[in-house]
Amino acid sequence: MAHRKVYLAVGRTGTRIYRFDPIDGDTRVVEDVRPYEAGYTAMGAQYRGDDKEPLLLAVSRDKLITIDVAAGTLKEQVIDGLPDGPWFDGDMDPDGKTLFAVSNPGTPSYAIDVAAGKAVPRNAPGGGRWDDFAYHPKNGRLYSVEGDNGDLLLVDPGRQPMKTVLKQGVFPPAQASAAAGSRKAYSATFFDQDGNFYAVDSAGNVNHLDVTTATIPDHSQRIGRGRVPVGNLEIMNGAGRITPLPVPPSYDEITVTKKFNRTWENSEPRGRVYSFDLTLTAIGKDSGTAEDVRKFRISFDLPTVKGAKAEASGVEVIAQDGKAYLDSVGDQFLAAGTSRPITVLITVPGDPARLPQEYPLDGLRATRLPSH
């Protein structure tokens, strides 16, 4: 099971959940889930079906924290046999029944039966500054990254200690956030269903590694020119798995504005069509720097109902799990500082009388794509 977004636990205390899209860098706090003041980590995702958000499960001292991002609830439960922590790595096992959590190098790890509320000790992890791991969707093995030197690690629960170095220096050394006490660690890791591995450090730098075959590249690829936008907060952990897309990730955000044109009723499917002019400007959104753009991506939220679609000329459109991605076709040169409009039609099925007169176009963003 997988979705278009994964989940980040952000903040050493007052921890919040953020949804994160590794393809375009879209990052949004889940406002309905309250902050947890004591903080939590070692988080995993328990999927409940294709059209449902997963349950997130994490640990804080001797408690299991259950976060329902759909319902906006957060509950805590003392776990029989679970020590007082501290906790670092965590993930749900492939069958979604056990949260596997790791503490200090020489102390036992613990397998938590989330239904029974009981924890069983396992082997010790071994030394290093590795703060999250994730199960590979094809081979079922646990992978992690050493923050100090970027080694790719294999974590075998049957070994004592569990950690072995699979390949040295694959990732750049991790960076800490500006938060007090932040660790230089890769604190959030996850896969897509094909076996592409993503690792996010405490400061929000995102790296990608192709682990879809037995041959592991010598070096990961850092995505984008910026970091996951969570301010000076520390990224503590991550959970989830994404559905793969045949497009490269890009976080180099450029300026885009929208102008609503008009709407009309549609018969097949029954609903409404909304027309927008989206104007791209070859200026970095955050930096304000004017720079040429040759290829771009526009993305925004799209309803998950059957028949919803986006259309525009000169772009390739992919719609998946509530998002639309519009990638430019070929070289569409836009000189530094200049602008161009793109007319986009969005079809939303439903009762035309109940649909809004203007589609909100939430999550609208544009990124510069590599031109080589």
TrEMBL record:
Pfam families: DUF6923. It comes from the Bacteria. Signal peptide: none annotated. Residues 61-215 form the DUF6923 domain. This is DUF6923 domain-containing protein. The lineage of its organism: Bacteria, Bacillati, Actinomycetota, Actinomycetes, Kitasatosporales.
